[in-house]
Amino acid sequence: MKRPAAPPFSRKTIGLAAALVFSACVPIPPILVRKSSTAPPVAIKASSVGLLLLARGGSSGDDRALVTLKNETIRVAPADLASGLANPDAIQGAINRLVARNVRRILAVPLFAASQNELVMQTRFVLGLGPTLSADMINALKQEPRYRTTLFLAQANSPIPLSWGSPVDGTPVPSAILEHRALRLSRDPAAETLVVVGRGSGIDALDAASLAELNRLAQSLQSRLGFAGASAASLRFDAAPSARSQASASLRSIVARASSRGRAVVLLDSVCDDGMDRRVRSALKGLRYAFDPRPLNAAPALRRWVLALARRAEG
Q1: Ramachandran region of residue 84, left (φ > 0), alpha (ψ -120 to 50) or beta?
Q2: In a domain? residue 42
Q3: Distances (CA, A) of 73 to 86, 96, 301
Q4: Are 156 and 136 contained in the same domain?
Q5: Does residue 125 fall inside a structural domain?
Q6: How far apart are CA 193 and CA 240, in angstroms?
Q7: pLDDT, tens only, 250-293
Q8: In degrees to the nearest 10, what's the CA dihedral of 151, 153, 158, 164?
Q9: Residue spans of alpha helices (H) in the chain
Q10: What is the pLDDT of residue 33?
Q11: Is the pTM of this model over 0.85?
């Protein structure tokens, strides 16, 4: 039986078939997608280091200053901020955002004026860079009402290497800031006593170490600026109420003696205020003294130090 003839193909059909065969043999170039106008203007290199800024925060002024610092740092290198009392949720969120920016490692930048306290040690533990806190330290942390006890054993996780940077109290930055402020307040250094006030610690041994550092700072400023005397005081923010009361009484006694001999110039050695201004004024009510209540986060020198870290990290 004779098979029916195949239907003739049109020239258009033959051309389409040839195009399909050709496209199967030739690799298709990748599709280029135009980036949205909301994308960051500068691409982040895969080899970049991300800066994790760590600070206590607390007051609205502190939070504004820290956000400004973060935004200025981002112009130089990938950076994020975790403010609060070693809060694992805040720290984990900042780590996640840095990882999403394609950084290969993270450098933690501790913005604490004193490394000798339980908050810094708890922060290191949360980052997996320090041991679990002792029962005494946890009890000291519980004196701060903003802590949640469920956070003490929680830790953040980083899928990329994370290291602890040099704390600001190991640099000349606090001294330079306080020197500028002391000169601004002083009328006659030879007749004045400089009093440097720090946050301190709830642990006796740590507070003694912190107070020793404050005294060294005060003595150094005295020798450079020619003050008649210099003293230091700790407010012991995270101590039990009785220890905080003793600390306030000690500060009042120091300033009262200085005022009786001439004039007291009082400065804060703390990156964040978080109530220090209020506590100093309460302890010294009724006394005559000169006082600069600003924390270190308001100083351009601190911003310059962080930006220099960012440039070195990117370099």
Answers
A1: left
A2: no
A3: 21, 18, 14
A4: yes
A5: yes
A6: 29
A7: 999 999 999 999 999 999 999 998 889 999 999 999 999 999 99
A8: 90
A9: 11-25, 60-74, 88-100, 118-126, 135-141, 173-185, 204-225, 241-261, 276-283, 300-314
A10: 31
A11: no
